[in-house]
Amino acid sequence: MEEYGYVKDVKDGLAVVQFKRKSGCGDNCAHCSAQCDAPPLTVDIRNTLNAEKGDKVKIEMDGNKFIKLSAITYGIPFVFLIVGIVIGLNLFKHMGYKNYELLGSLVGFVFLAISYSILSIIDKKLKPTDNETLSMTEVIRLNR
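Request: output the structure for the sequence above.
Response:
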């Protein structure tokens, strides 16, 4: 996966790069009636090519790593949701509740919330190495 962004700032060996976020319906927003405004995405990336403020840079991410991170981001909450629903259904059904489906669904959503909390904790611990996931591969000097 590769994207192009602009260096907004350089500090402590890191480049603050801003990307234009692509909307879900494509890049031709002028012809879209939804009028969605996708805010820019800003990330800190190790400045290995000595990019300067205002430079356009090419950023790459290994496709396998992207798929792995996506699977973690979406897979873990999905598994927690399903496991919570199954546990809740079985628990409340054996306890004799008439509305065990509703209660089982609520337990599933509680498990979903727990999974997001776990992912948040993991994300905070991995944040310092976040710039290892992305790599700067090209600098296009615009200020010269």
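The chain has a mean pLDDT of 85.
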